[in-house]
Amino acid sequence: MAAITLIEAVTMALAHEMRRDESVVVIGEDVGVNGGVFRATNGLQKIFGDQRVIDTPLDETMIAGLTVGLAAQGMKPIAEAQFDGFVYPMLDQIICHAARFRTRTRGRITCPLVLRVPWGGGIRAPEHHSEANEAMFTNVPGLRVVMPSSPHRAYGLLLSAIRDPDPVIYFEPKRIYRQYKEEVADDGEALPLDVCYVLRDGSDLTLVTWGSQVKECLEAADKLAEDGISAEVIDVATLRPLDFDTIRDSVKKTGRCVIVHEAPRSGGFGAEIAARLAEESMYDLLAPVERVTGWDTHIPLFRMEMNYLPSVARILSAARRTLARSA
């Protein structure tokens, strides 16, 4: 068992599934010879050949169409959008076709594809390279939306995504690609989709988050513990379909909830969770739900980038506000 980074866990999962299943192919811009812009596919073409690790032209619309076609014909394609902001030309094929095949054909044809999307800010990249656009996919029936937050979950959730018979959007938080290492066994053991992961038990407050913000929430929980406050930390992991039961059970126990995400506040996925809590858990809440989010603007370039992203200080401020209030 090796200690590896999140990006290395992605590579390991891809290689494992390509060895296990000859119908798995990887396609995208620079995924072959160069091993991907973030080196997620590094070395795979040398192992599996250029018929299974396929470099494409710089044409996201074509990549998406090719991926949908391969999936509809029995292959298991894994496409890469080099950056989150490059995914928009793919939306027509993903939303109008991939997400609808099962319904359109009354279950006769499924579309087992994975679209890997390096996601989020924090790497000092220019425009179109630092988007947090997960919410638009959570509104599309027929898609699964998955976002790991650690090397272990990156490996296990990607295995499940590749094996799933329906299309999966697999967001990879690039800010934590190489931030830390974790021991991960290349044992082919998949982690379940469609469930939240309770990373820390607590009794006073629930912190709900996903992706790169998990690290900040865990750090905030540590600081709250120094003051005798017990915070439960939930990693949503699969945004669609949402495992709301885990969130509801936690809030029933703690009575307070802070939702943290990098995407802009208005229309962010945190609003969906807050609305569900208002509908189903109103009488369990001891204080209004708080949200700590990005701002309603495009992520500022370079100098102000880290001020845009939710910080431990902002999470602590929201936690203490909700702890001081009564519903």
From TrEMBL:
Residues 4-179 form the Transketolase-like pyrimidine-binding domain. The keyword Zinc does not apply. InterPro entries: THDP-binding (IPR029061), Transketo_C/PFOR_II (IPR009014), Transketolase-like_Pyr-bd (IPR005475), Transketolase_C (IPR033248). The keyword Oxidoreductase applies. SUPFAM superfamilies: Thiamin diphosphate-binding fold (THDP-binding), TK C-terminal domain-like. Its EC number is 1.2.4.4. Its cofactor is thiamine diphosphate. CDD domains: TPP_PYR_E1-PDHc-beta_like (cd07036). Signal peptide: none annotated. Keywords: Oxidoreductase, Thiamine pyrophosphate. This is 3-methyl-2-oxobutanoate dehydrogenase (2-methylpropanoyl-transferring). It comes from Pseudomarimonas salicorniae.
